[in-house]
Amino acid sequence: xxxxxxxIEGSGKSTQxxxxxxxxxxxxxxxxxxxxxxxxxxxxxxxxxxLDPESAAMNPAAELLLYTADRVxxxxxxxxxxxxxxxxxxxxxxxxxxxxxxxxxRGLDMALILDLxxxxxxxxxxxxxxxxxxxxxxxLQRAWNQLKSGSRMDTESRFxxxxxxxxxxxxxxxxxxxxxxxxxxRIIDASQSEDQVRAQITRVLKFExxxxxxxxxxxxxxCT
Length: 224
Ligand code: TMP
Known about the structure:
Blueprint: E1 2-7, H1 13-26, E2 31-35, H2 41-51, H3 60-84, E3 88-92, H4 95-105, H5 110-120, E4 128-133, H6 136-149, H7 164-180, E5 185-189, H8 194-213
Parallel strand pairs: 1-3, 1-4, 2-3, 4-5
Bound molecules: thymidine-5'-phosphate (TMP).
Thymidine-5'-phosphate binds near residues 35 and 67.
């Protein structure tokens, strides 16, 4: 099973992914936690180029290709082998981020992005995606607090430096993508407290994991 978390800057994905990992582990399920960009050794080098504020002049198409390079390495080296070995893979961002950031916010051709994913990344899609939704005002404030307090490195602040309008487009983009695939997406109100968000995610997880493990029983399962 392949689970992803998505959301704008400061939406709390990196905190919540730890809760997801712990919940699955405590439930006795084999799982691995990973992220994009930077889920592999090669990917970490690509990540440092992509997120460096000194890369401000990066061409949007170059940006798209670097995210795709990171992803194909990640899929081949980590995601597919782990799924094949029976693990649940939980990933902090994946292809929906490319659709929202490079497609909708940067304005690159969506058909090109979808084709690249089909040609290079085997069109691999998650089984379940949590979209942590939050206003960009609130998200950016949290993200800048993390940068100021040192809990996030300022060598990774290229996207935080983008204008508020850019982050508004990313949020709208994500919500539009989620609307098109309601069976895969679960939209979580990330303006709530950490515990409230965790409780909401855990409720969905219990239901979805049971359904995934025993699809024939899905009519009997109640979401509690
Ligand atoms: P994060 O690891 O803190 O979420 O930062 C990753 C940044 O990269 C974030 O600003 C979103 C951006 N991003 C894209 O623009 N496209 C992508 O495909 C991915 C995976 C991330």
